[in-house]
Specification:
CATH architecture of the largest domain: Alpha-Beta Barrel
Number of strands: 12
Number of helices: 13
Radius of gyration: 19 Å
Strand content: 5-15%
Helix content: 25-40%
Order of helices and strands: EEEHEHEEEHEHHHEHEHEHEHHHH
Bound molecules: flavin mononucleotide
Length: 372
């Protein structure tokens, strides 16, 4: 187990207890160090409105002591829909469901955050009107390049979605800049071949994200929780570029937290395979001022959680283990030897954990997860 500490004013320097509160720069406080990672579950209605199943699955995680519950990726434009049954936040007509969801999560003491998303070239062609959009024309999907005025509208729609989330009662939003979706496509030299101010240098490729973050801060104010998810060293983005983006965003201190999606928290950097440090350490050791850091990726046991926190991460993002155990935080905080139930799990077990048959069907995409 690693023992480094980043020494940047993190609350962990005073107390590394997993049940200790964590206050963000905006003033929002998490009651502990556990976040339910954003997870698509395909349970919403066709128009993106909230279903009972999606409400129950998320509120059960707030009841299970996740200090922050993040929703699945929710699309900010209809052309950005990436999944069947995806939760939407592209219209005021969807507000009732969001009021109910944010209220249900907060009622149990959890911080309610919605992830704002646009699938870009990976949009679901059967669900959207027209062809998907991308920073530049993409042969493999047939996606077309966005015009400059469409980029302005896109930015405005992310900002409007954040305002909508705020009016619905969420504590904050996370911007999905990871996993090869639209904002990640802008960051990636593989998909972004633009020659205007949104392409070329790292400054230009991150301009859309910066504009969205500034726009949200302007309209939602300094007390609204604002996070950004990034994928390091993947999807055509080099590690040095991810570090540059992280550094610059930490410097501006616009964000309350950065969420580095690792898929495996023990992963080493492909660019630096001989480095004793893992990818997690590369980011946790970067200067970040008051910006908090979370990571996700195979954080499954109590010992994994302790390891991640000991390496200077402020709070952990838990995905699949949070599907298996709605009360994962409570289990980890009471048992230092906790390990999740073995895979595959039956649909009955999943149902008892608040996972509907529709979500269980979606989970069959993860080999070895659901017993069929
Ligand atoms: C069923 C499922 C759905 C996911 N949906 C999203 C999503 O909507 N947005 C996102 O940023 N990541 C998504 N992810 C990635 C998770 O947030 C998390 O980063 C990843 O699963 C690694 O964590 P884990 O090993 O604890 O599951 C999803 C993962 C799973 C398993």
């Amino acid at each position: 187990m690693y023992t480094y500490f980043h020494g940047q004013g993190s609350d962990l320097n005073q107390s590394n207890h997993l049940g200790s509160r964590l206050s963000f720069r905006c003033g929002v406080t998490m009651p502990n160090r556990f976040m339910l990672a954003p997870m698509t579950n395909c349970q919403s209605f066709k128009d993106g409105s909230l279903s009972e199943a999606e409400y129950l699955w998320l509120v059960k995680r707030a009841i299970g002591h996740f200090g922050m519950v993040m929703t699945c990726a929710a699309h900010v434009q209809t052309i950005g829909q990436g999944f069947p049954g995806q939760l939407g936040i592209y219209s005021d007509a969807l507000l009732d469901g969001h009021r109910r969801l944010a209220g249900g999560i907060r009622e149990h003491g959890s911080v309610a955050v919605i992830q704002l998303h646009h699938a870009g070239r990976r949009a679901l062609v059967d669900a959207i009107e027209g062809v998907p959009v991308c920073p530049s024309r993409d042969e493999s999907t047939g996606a077309r390049a966005l015009t400059l005025s469409e980029i302005d509208s896109l930015c405005a729609d992310f900002v409007k979605a954040a305002l909508r989330a705020q009016s619905a009662g969420y504590d904050g939003v996370e911007i999905h800049g990871a996993h090869d979706y639209l904002l990640c496509q802008f960051l990636s030299a593989k998909y972004n071949h633009r020659t205007d101010e949104f392409g070329g240098s790292v400054t230009n490729r991150m301009r859309l994200i910066s504009n969205i973050l500034d726009g949200i801060r302007q309209v939602c104010g300094s007390q609204f929780l604002l996070g950004l998810r990034l994928s390091p060293e993947k999807y055509g983005i080099e590690l040095s570029e991810s570090i540059e983006v992280f550094r610059r965003l930490a410097e501006t201190q616009t964000l309350d937290f950065l969420d580095v999606s690792l898929w495996d928290y023990k992963k080493k950097s492909d660019a630096q395979p001989d480095d004793e440090r893992g990818l997690l350490d590369v980011f946790s050791l970067l200067e970040r001022g008051q910006t908090k850091l979370t990571v996700a990726g195979k954080i499954q046991t109590a010992s994994d959680v302790a390891d991640v926190v000991a390496r200077g991460v402020d709070f952990v993002g838990v995905g699949r283990a949070g599907i298996l155990h709605h009360d994962f935080p409570a289990l980890v905080m009471t048992d230092p030897n906790f390990r999740p139930r073995a895979l595959p799990v039956s649909r009955d077990v999943l149902a008892r954990e608040g996972v509907s048959p529709v979500f269980a069907d979606y989970l069959t995409r993860w080999p070895g997860f659901v017993a069929d």
